[in-house]
Amino acid sequence: MIVLKLTDGLGNQMFQYAFARALQQRRNDKIYLDITKLGYGHIRSYSLDQFVLNEQVIVPIPLFQWVFRVYTKIIRLFLNRILGISLVTQEGFDRFTKIGYYTTNEPIRFYKCEECSMPILFVRGFFQSDKYFDFIEDTIREDFRFKIEPNKKSLLEMKNKIKSTNSVCLHIRRGDYTKYKRFQICNEAYYREAMSYISKKVENPVFYVFSNTHEDIVWIKQNYTFQKEVEFVDLSNTELEDFYLMKECKHFVISNSTFSWWAAYLSSSKDKIVVAPYPWIRGDEYQEDIYRKDWHKINVDDLQ
């Protein structure tokens, strides 16, 4: 049995699931989801139910989820606060793993994972690196297919535009990122540099601009000046509908957001170019693990 605690937005939930799926592949266990920190007054909702996933993923009754949540919190506090076992080092990660608890406070750092023979595994963390699940990449792509593809008229019209051009998804993450300095908003200079890089490699690119909300799109129009051909995607789409369109693009200029990370990862476009900002998180010693090897990084500090 694998008990997975899901938290935060769609991109984070996808990383958490992908990590647990890699564990499941090795053990052939069922994954039980704890979604007590999603929905019901929380900012984020459970979003993975829109994907196929696999038949061995179960959302148990709330009572069981709360038991899982309380148990793992007690274990984590005891080991971390009482025994002083670190949640940010490989050694600490290994000590938790030995008792069947895969947990860390470092979101974008890759930890080598030792196999554990405990009958129940508990997973808590973000695990934002494809190194955790690169050996089952095809499986992950299958699991993250939509159960029912969106069919809204305006969305399908936009999808046809995207498919008929040398489309580039350009994602500008604002929203909650305006509140936290650690998750800096990529500035206009980053996007100009990224668009210039793409334009040298792609013939007649069309940049499709995505952001969190209509208000964010309005702000971007008023504050950013684009020298290339752009089209703003402002269709009052849901988060999943925007995600559906984003991953249909042929190339990508992503922000430091797991949402656009996954759109780029899941795109089936051949020879796609992906441009990403560096660093991903302010003040984090570990950066490289979140980037795929063939992605082009632009250092935003050089553009200040």
UniProtKB/TrEMBL annotation:
Q: Name one GO biological process term.
A: carbohydrate metabolic process
Question: Which Gene Ontology terms cover its molecular function?
Answer: galactoside 2-alpha-L-fucosyltransferase activity
Source organism superkingdom: Bacteria
Q: Which Pfam families match?
A: Glyco_transf_11
Q: Which UniProt keywords apply?
A: Glycosyltransferase, Transferase
Entry's Gene Ontology cellular component terms: membrane
Query: What name has this protein been given in UniProt?
Result: Alpha-1,2-fucosyltransferase
Q: Which organism is it from?
A: Phocaeicola dorei
